[in-house]
Specification:
Elements: E1 14-16, E2 19-21, E3 28-32, H1 40-52, E4 57-61, H2 65-76, E5 82-85, H3 90-98, E6 103-106, H4 108-111, H5 114-127, E7 130-136, H6 153-169, E8 175-180, H7 184-197, E9 203-204, H8 212-228, E10 234-236, H9 243-256, E11 265-268, H10 279-290, E12 298-302, H11 308-314, E13 317-322, E14 325-330, E15 333-338, H12 343-357
This protein binds iron/sulfur cluster (SF4).
Iron/sulfur cluster binds near residues 302, 304 and 306.
């Protein structure tokens, strides 16, 4: 672990189905389906795609009775633990517990009375179901809102810790907490407060972060800053996009911080007037082609002789533009010149050969 990364905050270990969260367990990536939960076939298809992209935990919205009734078939059809996301109606939370959900996400701001919370807590405690106290800036209890109706970081943290304390009082032993705001500074502050004050594992994310491009940046900054500070046991990237993209972004965030197994990584230069090859096109094509692999491999795509040979030598496989074509590097050695027409195919062929030589070592996940 790099010295710039803070030591991970020690949290209590909980078990969501067979997936450990907290207490030093690997940081997990989760996401939420956007299919109609009652449409079991479509929901399972999406869960399967999410799983292939590296998802560890699947969450489904349970907005009504038909969604709750679909849960047993969904749970039986995936190897990920399934979390039911419930708002407003505590009876749906109770139904989801009965239907076998490994976890329930509830929001103290939307679940209603303490009595309802107690009912949920008793049922969950009896079955070892994880309860996530999931506080969001958009649905904080009115009494905790600031003077201009703003949900401040301290209030988000207070709501979550009050909710967790109530659940603890009702005998729940498996709790995780999230305190998400839609902007990064508030999110970071809220998580820092909770992390200092309590030992439950934290589910980290920036809520309603935005579209694929903007939301990826916001999530990477927010989640990345928290993880680098040692805070966070499981992550969810919230994007106005497919949950598969959320999982891919989540995996990339972990990989960027060297916090989890990761697949191939493309190192590519920003290109400039010196570039001897079309670096942008080649790097995009290489990245696309490498999507199929699950091994930790560094592949460098560089434009010219300035930094090209250096980066290409440091990578497992590298290519750098040269006069009239490109130079191909494998494990630090320049192996041959290639033409611009054949460079993509030759590079991918070397990737395959290297993976075979290494015997598929370091399977990503
Ligand atoms: Fe420009 Fe060459 Fe550096 Fe790429 S490697 S940015 S082409 S100088």
């Amino acid at each position: 672990m790099s010295h710039v990364m803070a030591k991970r905050k020690s949290t209590k270990r909980i078990m969501l189905g067979d997936v450990a969260i907290g207490g030093g367990a690997p940081i997990t990536v989760q996401s939420m389906t956007n299919t109609d939960t009652a449409d079991v076939e479509a929901t399972l298809a999406q869960l399967s795609e999410m799983r292939c992209a590296g998802c560890d935990i699947g969450r489904v919205a349970v907005p009504d009775g038909s969604a709750a009734e679909a849960l047993p078939r969904i749970i039986a059809g995936t190897d990920m633990p399934v979390v039911a996301d419930v708002h407003f109606d505590h009876k749906l939370a109770l139904a989801a517990i009965q239907m076998g959900a490994a976890g329930i996400r509830i929001n103290p701001g939307t679940i209603g009375s303490r009595l309802h919370l107690k009912d949920i807590a008793k049922q969950a405690a009896g079955r070892g179901v994880v309860l996530r106290v999931g506080v969001n800036s958009g649905s904080l209890e009115r009494r905790l809102l600031g003077p201009e109706g703003r949900a401040e970081a301290a209030a988000l943290a207070e709501s979550a810790m009050e909710g967790a304390a109530l659940l603890e009082g009702f005998g729940v032993e498996q709790i995780k907490i999230s305190v998400k705001a839609s902007d990064v500074p508030r999110t970071i502050e809220a998580y820092r407060i909770v992390s200092e004050k309590c030992g439950w594992p934290l589910h980290v994310g920036v809520t309603e972060a935005g579209t694929l491009w903007a939301g990826t940046i916001k999530s990477a900054v927010g989640i990345g800053a928290l993880l680098a500070a040692g805070i966070g046991d499981t992550i969810r990237v919230s994007l106005t996009a497919s949950p598969v993209e959320e999982v891919r972004v989540g995996r990339r965030i972990l990989a960027a911080l060297d916090l989890g197994p990761h697949g191939p990584e493309v190192i590519s230069c920003p290109t400039c007037a010196r570039a001897e090859i079309d670096v942008i096109e080649l790097a995009c094509k290489v990245e696309e082609a490498l999507e199929a692999y699950r091994v930790p491999l560094r592949v460098a795509v560089m434009g010219c002789a300035v930094n090209g040979p250096g980066e290409a030598r440091e990578a497992d496989i590298g290519i750098t533009g040269g006069k009239g074509g490109a130079l191909l590097f494998v494990e630090g050695e320049m192996v041959r010149r290639v033409s611009t027409e054949s460079m993509l195919d030759e590079l991918i062929a070397e990737v395959q050969r290297l993976i075979e030589r290494r015997g598929g070592e370091g399977e990503g996940r």
